[in-house]
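Please fill in the sequence for the structure shown.

STRUCTURE ENCODING:
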């Protein structure tokens, strides 16, 4: 009789989890490439342009996934969504962003300096549409100086559809 997964060594289970993640990403890429085949979009040469390009942001996201550093982009996108939310939803969305990206125990914690973190803690008392502006700006600067130059040198930037 089969004992299920409990009989497998933990190293095998970890490898299987990793393979599942990679296969999921591959399936997403294939679906996206199939949808966008034939569209030719030049790779953006600055981060701001890239963040407002559907193909650019997707290629950048997959590049960051390959480096296990997708949280900065996801935080930036969440902040954009937050700024465009109705006033009635700001408090709940602010708490969600805090729980996902800011809290020291957050699953996708972004790297903010203590000054920005402390300012954000004060602003969380009464969230407004501008609550995350400074933190979003810091993360944008970090991506512009660190991951974006590496992205530009990667195949994800040079040939987005081929890299995907």
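FILLED IN BY: designer on duty
SEQUENCE:
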């Amino acid at each position: 009789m089969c004992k299920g997964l409990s009989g497998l060594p933990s190293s095998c289970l970890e490898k299987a989890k990793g393979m599942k993640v990679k296969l999921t990403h591959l399936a997403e890429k294939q679906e996206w490439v199939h949808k966008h085949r034939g569209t030719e979009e030049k790779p953006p040469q600055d981060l701001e342009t890239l963040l407002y390009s559907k193909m650019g942001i997707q290629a950048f996201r997959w590049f960051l996934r390959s480096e296990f550093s997708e949280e900065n982009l996801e935080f930036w996108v969440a902040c954009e969504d937050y700024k465009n939310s109705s006033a009635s939803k700001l408090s709940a969305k602010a708490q969600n962003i805090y729980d996902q990206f800011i809290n020291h125990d957050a699953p996708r914690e972004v790297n903010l300096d203590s000054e920005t973190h402390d300012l954000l803690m004060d602003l969380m008392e009464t969230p407004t549409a501008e609550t995350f502006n400074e933190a979003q700006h810091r993360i944008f600067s970090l991506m512009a100086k660190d991951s974006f130059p590496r992205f530009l040198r990667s195949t994800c930037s040079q040939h987005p559809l081929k890299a995907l």
